[in-house]
């Protein structure tokens, strides 16, 4: 008579793929594929990609950094204070795109006093990352913005050509291409939303 051996059993149940499991897997793969294709189509139809030239927007955007631009957002709303916009100057349509931050919107009176921005007579509180402004340029005197005019500054306040300079001046809505949307990181961090 054979003795029964006590101990561990290494018998494993053979797994099989059911039709419902296969259907669910393929549904998820298809959904991910459609999502990626939709995102790419939306990005190329509603957006564009440009490269940041220079250090005028540091530390927000770095020289050579790729920036994705939302070209349709301002078809539905006007730029707001704090938006980072992309624009071209009328006089030089073949020129590069400029990327700057909106500081003053239509109806505002903007002035730079003792290195600080004042809007409608009140000091504009902004990030401590932005330096005190050494040269107020044309904003040494109050500038009142008309309808459709915007006052823009680079985040690197002392290394930026912007609305303080006669070469750039005030920006009108028809000059604006869109809003800086995402910045592609030069390292391993991927994409960052532009704030």
Q: Count the helices. How many?
A: 2
Low-pLDDT regions: none
The proportion of residues forming helix, as a percent range, comes to 10-25%
- Overall tally of structural domains: 1
CATH superfamily: Umud Fragment, subunit A
Question: How many strands, what sense, and barrel or not for the largest sheet?
Answer: 8 strands, antiparallel
- Nearest-angstrom radius of gyration? 27 Å
Shape: elongated
Which series of helices and strands comes N to C? HEEHEEEEEEEEEE
Average pLDDT for all residues: 86
Per DSSP, what share of the residues sits in E-state strands of 2 or more residues?
25-35%
Distance between the termini: 81 Å
The count of β-strands is 12
At the first level of CATH, what is the class?
Mainly Beta
Classify the secondary structure makeup into a structural class: alpha+beta
CATH topology: Umud Fragment, subunit A
Instruction: State the CATH architecture.
Output: Ribbon
Kindly summarize this structure in a few lines:
With 195 residues, the chain is of the alpha+beta class. The chain is built from 2 helices and 12 strands, in the order αββαββββββββββ.
